[in-house]
Design brief:
heterodimer, A: about 210 residues, Four Helix Bundle (Hemerythrin (Met), subunit A), 3 domains, about 0% strand, elongated, B: about 475 residues, mainly alpha, 4 strands
Amino acid sequence: MLAHALIFYLFSFVAIISSLAVISSKNTVHAVFFLILDFVSISCLFIMMGAEYLGMLTLIVYVGAVAVLFLFVVMMLNVNFKELRAGFLNYLPFGSLIGLVLLIEIGMMIGTWKYRDSFIKTSEIQINNNLTNTESIGNVLYTDYIHYFQISGLILLVAMIGAILLTFRQKENLKRQNITKQVSRERDDGVSLEDVESFKGVKLND
Amino acid sequence: MIELQNIFPEIFLTLSLLFLLVAGVFLKNSFSLIKKITIILLLICIPLVYVNYDNQILIFNNNYSINNFSNLLKIIILISSAFSLIFTGQYLKRLKIEKFEYMILILCSTLGMFVMVSTNNLIGLYLGIELQSLSLYVLSSIDRNSLKSSESGVKYFVLGALSSGLFLYGCSLIYGFTGSTNYFIINENFTVENIGLIFGLVFVIVGLAFKVSAVPFHMWTPDVYEGSPTAVTAFFALAPKVAGMGAFIQILFVAFGGAFAEWKTIIIFISVASMILGSVAAIGQTNIKRLMAYSSIGHMGYGLAGLATGSLSGISATLSYIFIYVVMNIAAFTSILFFSRDKKYCEDIRDLGGLSKNHPVVAVCFCIILFSLAGIPPLAGFFAKFYIFKSVIESEMYILAVIGLLSSVISAFYYLRIIKIMYFDTEQEKFDDISGLGMKFSLFSSSFLILFYFINPSFLVNITEIASKVFN
């Protein structure tokens, strides 16, 4: 139990510190790296709570796709962050107002925690403890909802076709590597023996 | 395993689009081959739907329904998708956008529409809408070298994402208050007193109204119609409207059947606003694609007027209206694709001057189509409007009927103006010669249907009445 608590506090500490670092670090690339660290520690917390599917999904979707996309955007678009920071004092009143509203909302949420039983009746939900989350999701996803699963696959296929169709341009005069052509090349194709007479050049046909 | 045979058309479409995708990647310059195969596959799919036409089955835990209603809409969707490829002719080649992905995206979109009209679940509806519209976003910006096409794609994408957001917000409210996303359970747990549910209902209607481009969520329509390549515009005007209406009918009558009094006023407002705007705003338009956009907004208004009655005869009138609307739009867009000078397509209606001298047959066909769109007897368009007004008057909603009739009179003005330009304005340069078997077939068959619909109108009425009995 002590080990569990220790690991929990470790991951929570890392998560909080790295999320603070995301908004405070001057270098935007560092900020994105801290964001990735934050996601990783949150996914570890999910796994500790027994929600292993959610944890893995966080890793794959947020770290694997979203954060890497952010990284690309930050590195490829040359955004001038000094300019963005310039109006800090102008935005301070409005920003702190929004922060205050968020703080009050969090306070209200914690305040109503003791009434949670009247909102969520977990006792009514039947859970089979022998199955993992992934298994129970798979049990409905591949049986009752198989047609939705298939249609979703087709939607992704259309997205792929569309992206290729709208962006791919076949360039002409482009030299491409053709491995079969390279491998099947014989000596006679490349080398020719010419008798060169003295004091006369040789004309090669390409 | 018994379930799979019922969704055979969907499986068939999925497999064929995956197969064609791989084939298109490996075969070079396979545009026209894949186009032909796609048309054939779409036409083969019609008998596949028809085989199970009279089945009434709920599969995937009551989340997917196969019945007369969804099958009828699927057949209409297949016809419109197939024709939107048949009548493109040389258009895509001339614009240098002969990419095989065009057909793959149309197949994907068709599949999404199948899901939209068949599903009995909000999740399924959302996925269907996304599959359908994601393909449409890409299609509308497929002409990458044209600024207007790219602009229309971005515009459609941003507004479509916004409407999906509104739709999902409504779904989350409904799920929160009824505890399910299934239409039947939503209907059981729906309590009219709950304000949250009414909010959710309104947001869901807003999301769907955007998809059928009903006023006040129509802003994107003229710009997207004008900017997209004409062949894509034609597809926009056909199948997605059918699927949107189908999803509208399903969700209003299955999920919110108990809240008729609540959604009735909303639908009446949307319908009246669409009819009025569709007829008034089109008067000032000179671009024929923008004009067709306003015309389709108006037509969606008439379709929704049938729903506003909340009766079975209203649903069947709406279904007949959708079918005739599809036929008329197939014919109209085929004619628009005929109008080219020096391989450049005319989009300004003033350029049509002297068409009757150049191409008398096309001019006569286009004249019939425009008369039908205006609702002049004895053409098909008249019958479509007649069914709607009949059911509206039966439900004693006289004001709605009067407004519909008045806006139909106003809209006749701009249709007749095109006929005047075609027949009486001075002749300009010569139009290109007409070629393309597919275009001729599409124009003549649809004009024939419009012209001779009055011989046996009970055929369509019977089919739609049977389909509307599903909601009894």
